[in-house]
Amino acid sequence: MNTRLTQLAAGVLATVFSVAAQPAREPRLPNVAILATGGTIAGTGATSTTTVGYKAATLGVDALIAAVPELARVAHVSGEQVFQIASENMTPGHWLQLARRVNELLARDDVDGVAITHGTDTLEETAYFLDLVVKRSKPVVLVGAMRPSTSLSADGPMNLYNAVALAASPDAAGRGVMVCMNDQINAARDVTKTNTATLDTFRAPELGPLGVMESGHPTFYRTTTRLHTSATEFDIGPIQELPKVGIVLAYAGSGRVAIDAMVAAGVRGIVHAGTGNGSLSTDAKAALVEARSKGIVVVRASRVPGGTVARNGEADDDALDFVAADNLSPQKARVLLTLALTRTADTHEIQGMFRRY
To answer: Is residue 19 scored above 70 in pLDDT?
Structure first.
């Protein structure tokens, strides 16, 4: 009996030591797809101090990934070059192509999130478009840089690291499309480029950031309340070309020339970036009324960078059959109007979309 007990004890000890000797399993790293579109983050300059006059969109996605080996600590990454352009050349056609690819990737079980490198000039518009048409709750993060890859203290590598870490985080799911730069996390709807050159240019001046990145981990302080991603009604599946929508900027003496030119160009919608609370000059109002009589949807926005455009405030929107932009910038009002027109031309329904999204 003692011999039997001794054998059992020896077997138990052997099992314990065997288990203890096995290396601990590392947690599974998320899979993040990096979609590259060009921009300053992929740019190069003549010298290490060249921060203006550089050439954007010269490096490919593989070079961007290779420059940040630390990405392997937070995710298994794959890279894909979708476009190679400076973002001032981004078009609605590019948006459709990019959005379709994002939806394809997020539908896969082996993709946990997507990070998109993008030029900063139109980054906020692309982000908001994706916020309205991406149909999954998995994280989608846009990232850029204010200095080219060759400059001293280039911000691109750290921005990319944080963006991938954010896209890999389960805490980032369900928060809509985000922009991650300069250690800040901002909602696509709220963020805007506020400075032509500084590293902290992307901000949400009125509503503030969603959170911050700390040592590769997101800390969130708020969430967005407007509907986004899978909660929106927009479906780009059958769309081959988006409706043409233009923006007209108001200024002292601007008159109606630009509005008439938009009408002649065949736009389906006009966003009027008015003065103050979306005010209309006499000439602009007359031209916009004529445009509306031809079926063109008119949205009153403001060139002022903060505040809301109140419905029936500086214009009788009910009588004029216009739409008020809420607190969307003219460029983001254009994004929403473009998508709204894929669903309806009814201004009452479109006004409801400006309240929901």
So the answer is: no
Distances (CA, A) of 257 to 158, 275, 288: 46, 17, 11
The C-alpha atoms of residue 295 and residue 58 are separated, in whole angstroms, by: 43
Q: Which residues are catalytic?
A: 40
The Cα–Cα gap between 356 and 117 comes to: 28
Angle at 183 between CA 180 and CA 185, to 5 degrees: 40
Cβ atoms of 330 and 120 closer than 8 Å: no
Chain Cα centroid distance, residue 220: 17
Burial of 13 (0-12, 13-18, 19+ CB in 10 A): exposed
Q: What is the DSSP letter of 322?
A: -
Three-state secondary-structure class, residue 21: helix
The domain spans of the chain are 31-231, 245-356
Q: Which CATH superfamily is domain 31-231 in?
A: L-asparaginase, N-terminal domain (3.40.50.1170)
Q: What does the chain come to in residues?
A: 357
Is the model's pTM score more than 0.90? yes
AA letter at 208: G
pLDDT at 221: 98
Q: What is the pLDDT of residue 3?
A: 53
Q: Give the C-alpha distances (Å, rounded to integers) separating 302 from 44, 129, 197, 247, 336.
A: 36, 20, 24, 11, 15
CATH class of 245-356: alpha beta
CA 323-329-335 angle, 5° bins: 70
326: left (phi over 0), alpha (psi -120 to 50) or beta: left
Structure tokens at 45: 């300059």
**What contacts 24+ positions apart, CB below 8 Å, involve 215-218?**
216/73, 216/74, 216/161, 216/162, 216/165, 217/165, 217/169, 218/165, 218/166, 218/169, 218/171, 218/172, 218/185
Q: Report the C-alpha gap between 327 and 354 in whole angstroms.
A: 9
Three-state DSSP class for 267?
coil
Share of the chain above pLDDT 90, in %: 92
How far apart, in whole angstroms, are the C-alpha atoms of residue 313 and residue 160? 43
Q: How far apart are CA 78 and CA 65, in angstroms?
A: 9
Mean of all residue pLDDT scores within the chain: 94
